[in-house]
Amino acid sequence: MSTAQLNEKKAPYGILAILMVGAFISILNSTLLNIALPSIQRDLGVETSTVQWLATGYMLVNGIMIPTTAFLIRKYSVRNLFLTAMLLFTIGTVTAGAATVFPVLLGGRMIQAAGSAIMMPLLMNVLLTAFPVEKRGSAMGLFGLVMMFAPAIGPTLSGWIVEHYDWRMLFHFITPLAVIVLAFGFFKLKDKKDKVNIKIDVLSVILSSLGFGGLLYGFSSAGSKGWDSPWVYGTLIVGVISLILFITRQLKMDSPMLEFRIFRHPMFALSASISIVLNMALFSGMILLPMYIQTIRGISPFDSGLLMLPGAILMAIMSPVTGKLFDKFGGRVLVVTGLSITVASTYFFSQLTMELSYGTLVTMFTIRSFGLAMAMMPVMTNGLNSLPARMNPHGTAMNNTLNQISGAIGTALLVTVMSNRAATHGEELAKAAMSKATGQPSAEALEGLKNMAMLEGINDAFLVATFIAALALILSFFMKRARPAEDKFGKTEKDNQSA
């Protein structure tokens, strides 16, 4: 779809509405299953390490597919890509919902992921080509509503469904929604694309899959398997080597699968750096807080999800507002303010206790969500605004890929910090208890010590996350309002006619 076509008369709001609903469903699905994993494990009789593949496998397929979306968006029309993505997602959902054995469930989940991976970059690219730079903040604010609200309500919705129904209902209730969106897309999306004579480089796909897949698997496994596991350091080594070869090959190609030269644009490079660091800190709330709430405090999965719901609603409300403020004032003031709130609220979570009230947790999580809502989309939008139009598919693919990898790195780092510090605190608490007790502490006392040690480990991990978020805050002071740079042919964004 060309820029000229999209900007003719008015923005394609019908197309955007269909794409956004499809993206909402696919993103919602990515977090919907997490709370249901224990129920699935019991029902299908599999080990914890096996059932975790429902999350790990989904993430791996996303990490492998997303880098190819820059090529797919340039090659095929929005209609063809959307219908392919939704068809894959629907087939995967139906397969997973009908599964009675784990391999079928995992297969359905991975088919879902293949469709979902196309959806987000496709929607972002249409938004970038449909709106001029001065209105992109508002457009990306709507995108932020989808990106932030869908995964945030996932745990609440999932907790309620799992408590009242069989876990398969998580797929059954998504299925009719996916079918309706697919039907709307089939009848309403009419865009056409001129034939583009580009071919996928198979070696690039292989190197990309090994590189990004190896890094994602290695970092995502480090928290559970340990850094000394051959599977962890082996896949990380393969990932790093493959990624170096992949980048080298892309820089030598006239028409690369994923364009790394976009990092020559300073504002895009800066926004990518801030997003990477911010994503690493973001996962402290997504991973560590549920551990504290459910494992240590014994709060039910449904109530755990409810705790995060006000923050999710606030993020949904703030995203369009933040987008309009971005168009008016630029990104730096929003990002600096948002990250300051994020740093302060993340530090609060490094001071968790056994007595902290549920209301206080809800309030502080909501404040943290407010800060993230002010920072995340303005950072991404400002970076993408600095690219020529022909680089938009590469920019969106790169952002989504980096988000996946930085999330995995952040999770691995923070879970490792939590585990190591919990072990250290456990030894210290056990020694103190032994010195005070006349004999061996009771089983109940040992369980209490274990929870206290884990609590201190979580606090230490949140403290590390605070310093990570502070690094993103420092980087944000260097932001400047971005305008599209001239491409190597000397054309500005307005001169480029193809997305």
Write the SSE topology.
Layout (H helix, E strand, L loop, with lengths): L2 H5 L5 H20 L4 H8 L3 H4 L1 H13 L3 H7 L2 H20 L4 H29 L5 H29 L4 H4 L1 H15 L13 H24 L4 H23 L13 H31 L4 H29 L2 H17 L9 H28 L6 H45 L6 H34 L23
Helix pairs in contact: 2-8, 2-9, 2-11, 5-8, 5-12, 6-18, 7-8, 7-11, 8-9, 8-18, 9-15, 9-17, 12-13, 12-18, 14-17, 14-18, 14-19, 15-17, 16-17, 16-19, 18-19
Description:
- With 499 residues, the protein is mainly alpha-helical.
- It folds into three domains: 6-197, Growth Hormone, Chain: A (Up-down Bundle); 201-256; 263-499, MFS general substrate transporter like domains (Growth Hormone, Chain: A), CATH 1.20.1250.
- The chain contains 19 helices and no strands.
- The protein has helices at residues 3-7, 13-32, 37-44, 48-51, 53-65, 69-75, 78-97, 102-130, 136-164, 169-172, 174-188, 202-225, 230-252, 266-296, 301-329, 332-348, 358-385, 392-436, 443-476.
List low-pLDDT spans.
1-9, 488-499
Number of DSSP helical runs: 19
Mean pLDDT: 81
Percent of residues in helices comes to over 70%
Give the oligomeric state.
single chain
Instruction: Give the biggest beta sheet.
Output: none
Q: Which of globular, elongated, flat, extended, rod-shaped describes the shape?
A: globular
Task: Identify the CATH class of the largest domain.
Answer: Mainly Alpha
Beginning-to-end CA distance, first to last residue: 7 Å
* Second CATH tier, the architecture of the largest domain: Up-down Bundle
Please provide the ordered H/E string of secondary-structure elements. Answer: HHHHHHHHHHHHHHHHHHH
Total DSSP E strands: 0
The tally of structural domains comes to 3
Task: Name the structural class.
Answer: mainly alpha
